[in-house]
Amino acid sequence: MRLFDTHCHLDIEDFDHDRDQVIADALSNGVTYVLIPAIAKSNFSAVQTLCRTHTGFYPALGLHPVFIDQHDDEHLDHLSNAINQERPTAIGEIGLDFAIKTLDKTRQISFFNAQLDIAAEHQLPVILHARRSHDEILKHLKAQKLTGGICHAFNGDINQAHRYIDLGFKLGFGGMLTYERSTKLRALAKALPNEAIVLETDAPDLTGAEHQYSRNSPAYLPEVAKSLSEIKGISVEKIAAITTANAMQVLSLTAD
Protein backbone atom coordinates (compact mmCIF):
# COMPACT_ATOMS: atom_id res chain seq x y z
CA MET A 1 0.00 0.00 0.00
CA ARG A 2 0.98 3.61 -0.61
CA LEU A 3 -0.88 5.87 1.78
CA PHE A 4 -1.04 9.68 1.86
CA ASP A 5 -1.31 11.42 5.25
CA THR A 6 -2.86 14.70 4.14
CA HIS A 7 -2.52 16.43 7.52
CA CYS A 8 0.41 15.85 9.87
CA HIS A 9 2.32 18.38 12.00
CA LEU A 10 5.63 16.54 11.98
CA ASP A 11 7.60 19.76 12.34
CA ILE A 12 6.45 20.63 15.88
CA GLU A 13 8.39 20.03 19.08
CA ASP A 14 6.39 16.94 20.08
CA PHE A 15 8.54 15.05 17.55
CA ASP A 16 11.89 16.70 18.27
CA HIS A 17 13.31 13.76 20.24
CA ASP A 18 12.40 10.97 17.80
CA ARG A 19 11.30 12.50 14.48
CA ASP A 20 13.57 10.29 12.36
CA GLN A 21 12.16 7.16 13.99
CA VAL A 22 8.58 8.36 13.53
CA ILE A 23 9.27 8.94 9.84
CA ALA A 24 10.91 5.53 9.50
CA ASP A 25 7.93 3.86 11.19
CA ALA A 26 5.52 5.68 8.88
CA LEU A 27 7.41 4.58 5.78
CA SER A 28 7.53 0.99 6.99
CA ASN A 29 3.74 1.10 7.38
CA GLY A 30 3.20 2.26 3.81
CA VAL A 31 2.79 5.98 4.48
CA THR A 32 4.66 7.21 1.42
CA TYR A 33 3.34 10.77 1.24
CA VAL A 34 2.77 13.39 3.94
CA LEU A 35 1.40 16.93 3.75
CA ILE A 36 2.73 19.14 6.55
CA PRO A 37 0.73 22.33 7.17
CA ALA A 38 2.23 25.33 8.90
CA ILE A 39 0.25 27.19 11.54
CA ALA A 40 2.14 30.50 11.86
CA LYS A 41 4.90 32.55 10.27
CA SER A 42 7.28 31.20 12.91
CA ASN A 43 7.17 27.64 11.55
CA PHE A 44 7.16 28.27 7.79
CA SER A 45 10.89 27.62 7.62
CA ALA A 46 10.74 24.40 9.67
CA VAL A 47 7.97 23.00 7.48
CA GLN A 48 9.82 23.87 4.28
CA THR A 49 13.11 22.43 5.54
CA LEU A 50 11.49 19.15 6.61
CA CYS A 51 9.76 18.75 3.26
CA ARG A 52 12.93 19.63 1.39
CA THR A 53 14.76 16.91 3.32
CA HIS A 54 12.33 14.02 2.82
CA THR A 55 11.03 12.70 -0.49
CA GLY A 56 7.23 12.52 -0.53
CA PHE A 57 6.78 15.27 2.08
CA TYR A 58 4.87 18.34 0.89
CA PRO A 59 4.54 21.77 2.57
CA ALA A 60 1.50 23.93 3.12
CA LEU A 61 1.97 27.47 4.44
CA GLY A 62 -0.70 29.38 6.31
CA LEU A 63 -1.83 31.25 9.41
CA HIS A 64 -4.02 29.07 11.64
CA PRO A 65 -7.19 30.67 13.10
CA VAL A 66 -6.60 29.29 16.62
CA PHE A 67 -3.45 31.42 16.80
CA ILE A 68 -5.12 34.54 15.45
CA ASP A 69 -3.77 36.65 18.35
CA GLN A 70 -0.22 35.84 17.23
CA HIS A 71 -0.68 36.89 13.59
CA ASP A 72 0.11 40.38 12.33
CA ASP A 73 -0.89 41.92 9.01
CA GLU A 74 2.75 41.80 7.95
CA HIS A 75 2.63 38.00 8.28
CA LEU A 76 0.31 37.97 5.28
CA ASP A 77 3.01 39.77 3.29
CA HIS A 78 5.51 37.22 4.57
CA LEU A 79 3.24 34.43 3.33
CA SER A 80 3.06 35.97 -0.13
CA ASN A 81 6.82 36.43 -0.22
CA ALA A 82 7.42 32.85 0.93
CA ILE A 83 5.22 31.55 -1.89
CA ASN A 84 7.15 33.59 -4.44
CA GLN A 85 10.48 32.32 -3.11
CA GLU A 86 9.58 28.63 -2.77
CA ARG A 87 6.12 27.63 -3.98
CA PRO A 88 4.38 25.32 -1.47
CA THR A 89 1.91 22.59 -2.34
CA ALA A 90 -1.01 24.37 -0.65
CA ILE A 91 -2.08 27.26 1.56
CA GLY A 92 -2.88 26.07 5.05
CA GLU A 93 -3.72 25.47 7.69
CA ILE A 94 -6.27 28.26 7.41
CA GLY A 95 -9.94 28.62 8.28
CA LEU A 96 -12.31 29.60 11.06
CA ASP A 97 -12.69 28.27 14.60
CA PHE A 98 -15.93 29.32 16.28
CA ALA A 99 -15.69 26.63 18.96
CA ILE A 100 -13.21 28.66 21.02
CA LYS A 101 -15.32 31.58 22.19
CA THR A 102 -12.38 33.81 23.13
CA LEU A 103 -11.10 34.05 19.55
CA ASP A 104 -11.95 37.22 17.64
CA LYS A 105 -14.36 36.14 14.88
CA THR A 106 -14.02 39.32 12.85
CA ARG A 107 -10.23 39.09 12.82
CA GLN A 108 -10.39 35.39 11.93
CA ILE A 109 -12.62 36.14 8.95
CA SER A 110 -10.34 38.95 7.82
CA PHE A 111 -7.23 36.73 7.85
CA PHE A 112 -9.14 33.84 6.27
CA ASN A 113 -10.29 35.97 3.34
CA ALA A 114 -6.85 37.49 2.89
CA GLN A 115 -5.34 34.02 2.64
CA LEU A 116 -8.06 32.87 0.25
CA ASP A 117 -7.10 35.84 -1.93
CA ILE A 118 -3.46 34.71 -1.81
CA ALA A 119 -4.45 31.14 -2.69
CA ALA A 120 -6.56 32.34 -5.61
CA GLU A 121 -3.78 34.62 -6.87
CA HIS A 122 -1.25 31.78 -6.86
CA GLN A 123 -3.74 29.08 -7.93
CA LEU A 124 -2.98 26.91 -4.91
CA PRO A 125 -5.39 24.59 -3.07
CA VAL A 126 -6.23 25.37 0.56
CA ILE A 127 -6.16 23.22 3.70
CA LEU A 128 -9.11 24.15 5.89
CA HIS A 129 -9.55 24.15 9.66
CA ALA A 130 -13.29 24.32 10.33
CA ARG A 131 -14.89 24.06 13.75
CA ARG A 132 -18.54 25.09 14.11
CA SER A 133 -17.98 27.30 11.10
CA HIS A 134 -18.75 25.27 7.97
CA ASP A 135 -21.55 27.50 6.67
CA GLU A 136 -19.47 30.65 7.18
CA ILE A 137 -16.46 29.07 5.50
CA LEU A 138 -18.53 27.82 2.57
CA LYS A 139 -19.93 31.32 2.06
CA HIS A 140 -16.42 32.76 1.69
CA LEU A 141 -15.17 29.88 -0.47
CA LYS A 142 -18.05 30.37 -2.88
CA ALA A 143 -17.01 33.99 -3.41
CA GLN A 144 -13.52 32.93 -4.54
CA LYS A 145 -12.11 31.30 -7.65
CA LEU A 146 -10.07 28.55 -6.00
CA THR A 147 -8.53 25.32 -7.23
CA GLY A 148 -10.19 23.41 -4.35
CA GLY A 149 -8.45 21.85 -1.38
CA ILE A 150 -9.08 19.70 1.66
CA CYS A 151 -11.43 20.25 4.57
CA HIS A 152 -9.34 18.77 7.36
CA ALA A 153 -10.99 16.58 10.04
CA PHE A 154 -14.40 17.01 8.44
CA ASN A 155 -17.29 16.71 10.89
CA GLY A 156 -20.09 18.58 9.18
CA ASP A 157 -23.32 17.17 7.78
CA ILE A 158 -23.99 15.53 4.43
CA ASN A 159 -25.36 18.74 2.89
CA GLN A 160 -22.25 20.69 3.87
CA ALA A 161 -20.10 17.83 2.59
CA HIS A 162 -21.66 18.02 -0.87
CA ARG A 163 -21.28 21.81 -0.93
CA TYR A 164 -17.54 21.38 -0.33
CA ILE A 165 -17.36 18.66 -2.99
CA ASP A 166 -19.13 20.93 -5.50
CA LEU A 167 -16.40 23.53 -4.87
CA GLY A 168 -13.66 21.03 -5.67
CA PHE A 169 -12.78 19.98 -2.12
CA LYS A 170 -11.92 16.61 -0.62
CA LEU A 171 -12.90 15.75 2.95
CA GLY A 172 -10.31 14.54 5.45
CA PHE A 173 -11.01 11.62 7.81
CA GLY A 174 -8.65 10.54 10.58
CA GLY A 175 -8.41 8.80 13.92
CA MET A 176 -11.95 9.64 15.04
CA LEU A 177 -13.20 7.28 12.34
CA THR A 178 -11.63 4.34 14.19
CA TYR A 179 -13.92 4.70 17.22
CA GLU A 180 -17.09 2.62 17.01
CA ARG A 181 -18.87 5.28 19.07
CA SER A 182 -18.31 7.78 16.21
CA THR A 183 -21.57 6.64 14.66
CA LYS A 184 -22.47 9.89 12.86
CA LEU A 185 -18.98 10.30 11.42
CA ARG A 186 -18.86 6.68 10.25
CA ALA A 187 -22.31 6.98 8.68
CA LEU A 188 -21.18 10.12 6.88
CA ALA A 189 -18.05 8.41 5.54
CA LYS A 190 -20.19 5.51 4.31
CA ALA A 191 -22.58 7.86 2.51
CA LEU A 192 -19.92 9.94 0.75
CA PRO A 193 -18.60 9.03 -2.69
CA ASN A 194 -15.20 7.34 -2.54
CA GLU A 195 -13.63 10.03 -4.70
CA ALA A 196 -14.44 12.70 -2.06
CA ILE A 197 -12.37 11.22 0.78
CA VAL A 198 -8.74 11.61 1.81
CA LEU A 199 -7.01 10.21 4.89
CA GLU A 200 -5.11 12.05 7.62
CA THR A 201 -3.77 11.68 11.14
CA ASP A 202 -3.42 15.29 12.38
CA ALA A 203 -0.49 13.90 14.37
CA PRO A 204 0.36 14.49 17.16
CA ASP A 205 -3.38 15.10 17.84
CA LEU A 206 -6.63 13.16 17.28
CA THR A 207 -5.23 9.72 18.03
CA GLY A 208 -7.26 6.69 16.98
CA ALA A 209 -8.82 3.98 19.12
CA GLU A 210 -5.78 1.68 19.26
CA HIS A 211 -3.57 4.44 20.69
CA GLN A 212 -6.03 6.46 22.76
CA TYR A 213 -4.43 9.01 25.13
CA SER A 214 -1.02 8.71 23.45
CA ARG A 215 0.75 10.86 20.88
CA ASN A 216 -0.57 10.34 17.38
CA SER A 217 1.76 9.35 14.56
CA PRO A 218 1.62 9.13 10.75
CA ALA A 219 2.55 5.45 11.24
CA TYR A 220 -1.01 4.93 12.51
CA LEU A 221 -2.65 5.97 9.23
CA PRO A 222 -3.21 2.34 8.13
CA GLU A 223 -5.64 2.00 11.05
CA VAL A 224 -7.76 4.79 9.57
CA ALA A 225 -7.60 3.09 6.17
CA LYS A 226 -8.69 -0.19 7.78
CA SER A 227 -11.69 1.45 9.46
CA LEU A 228 -12.76 3.12 6.23
CA SER A 229 -12.35 -0.22 4.46
CA GLU A 230 -14.72 -1.87 6.92
CA ILE A 231 -17.22 0.99 6.68
CA LYS A 232 -17.19 0.99 2.88
CA GLY A 233 -17.03 -2.79 2.49
CA ILE A 234 -14.06 -2.73 0.13
CA SER A 235 -10.47 -3.87 0.58
CA VAL A 236 -7.97 -1.78 2.48
CA GLU A 237 -5.67 -1.93 -0.55
CA LYS A 238 -8.38 -0.34 -2.68
CA ILE A 239 -9.02 2.30 -0.01
CA ALA A 240 -5.32 3.14 -0.02
CA ALA A 241 -5.25 3.44 -3.81
CA ILE A 242 -8.41 5.57 -3.98
CA THR A 243 -7.58 7.98 -1.17
CA THR A 244 -3.99 8.47 -2.30
CA ALA A 245 -5.17 9.19 -5.85
CA ASN A 246 -7.72 11.65 -4.44
CA ALA A 247 -5.02 13.49 -2.51
CA MET A 248 -2.71 13.60 -5.51
CA GLN A 249 -5.49 14.97 -7.70
CA VAL A 250 -6.64 17.77 -5.38
CA LEU A 251 -3.06 18.83 -4.57
CA SER A 252 -2.00 18.67 -8.25
CA LEU A 253 0.78 16.18 -7.50
CA THR A 254 2.17 13.34 -9.58
CA ALA A 255 3.10 10.01 -7.99
CA ASP A 256 6.76 9.08 -8.34
CATH topology of the domain at 70-204 and 244-250: TIM Barrel
Secondary structure tally: strands: 8
**Class of the domain at 70-204 and 244-250, according to the CATH hierarchy?**
Alpha Beta
Instruction: Name the CATH architecture of the domain at 70-204 and 244-250.
Output: Alpha-Beta Barrel
- Strand coverage percent: 15-25%
What overall form do the CA principal axes indicate? globular
Q: Which class do the helix and strand fractions yield?
A: alpha/beta
Helix content: 40-55%
Number of helices: 9
SSE order? EHEHEHEHEHEHEHEHH
Give the CATH H-level superfamily of the domain at 70-204 and 244-250: Metal-dependent hydrolases
Cα-atom radius of gyration:
17 Å
Biggest sheet strand line-up: 1-2-3-4-5-6-7-8
Mean of residue pLDDT values? 97
Low-confidence stretches: none
| Gap from first CA to last CA | 14 Å
Largest sheet: 8 strands, parallel
